[in-house]
Amino acid sequence: MITIVDYQMGNLRSVSKAIQRVGEETLITSDPGEIASAEKLILPGVGGFKDAIAELNRRDLANPIRDFIDSGLPFLGICLGLQMLFDSSEEGGQHEGLGIIPGEVVRFPADPALKVPHMGWNQVQITQPTPLMQGIEPGTHFYFVHSYYVKPSDRSVVAIEADYGAPFCAAIWRDNLHATQFHPEKSQGNGMKLLKNFVSLDAPGE
Fold first, then answer.
1. Tens of pLDDT along 129-168?
2. Which of 20, 35, 100, 113 has its CA 20 to 30 A from that of 66?
3. Between vectors from CA 123 to CA 118 and to CA 127, what angle results, nearest 5°?
4. 185 is an active site residue
5. Which is it for the CA torsion 16, 83, 40, 188, positive or negative?
6. What is the pLDDT at residue 66?
7. The domain spanning residue 147 has which CATH number?
8. In a domain, 147, yes or no
9. How many domains does the chain have?
10. Which domain holds residue 87?
11. Among the options 24, 79, 91, 95, which is catalytic?
12. Which pTM value belongs to this model?
């Protein structure tokens, strides 16, 4: 069973359907107790950072998410669900995140040659062999929709990069914590393979 956090801003149904297509049941919930007892947890997200963090706090979900990640069980953040793991974001002002990964969320720089948001398919490069990318070739394309990107303080957590005017972090990995800036649920076959890899994960040490 894969538990998906519902805070009224995630692309819940598309993520749930994608997980079901790779053979696993899902539970969409905003109940802190159900999040605390999850076997695997996904934090999806679309929309603005400020409103998303406010909703997590209003629903008393921030601490259960932190506690789940501390438990060592498999966790996946998607898009805004990646960005909220960081200390802060400059989207719409300066706002505190969950503070799980040191670093910040910043906007793509103004460049007449680049459209913001960064939207569509982009090629990724694996910077460390994350379990999510097992069986997926370097140079694969995934689907992105975002105006802001994460800048980890510690480069060792960067698992995947893409290029949009300059290289940026497209996914992170630290122990049981995995998170992608791109949308695997919208990335066709390779996205399904990535989600299947997540579904197959054991907790570290198992």
1. 999 999 999 899 999 999 999 999 999 999 999 999 999 9
2. 20
3. 110
4. yes
5. positive
6. 98
7. 3.40.50.880
8. yes
9. 1
10. 2-199
11. 79
12. 0.96
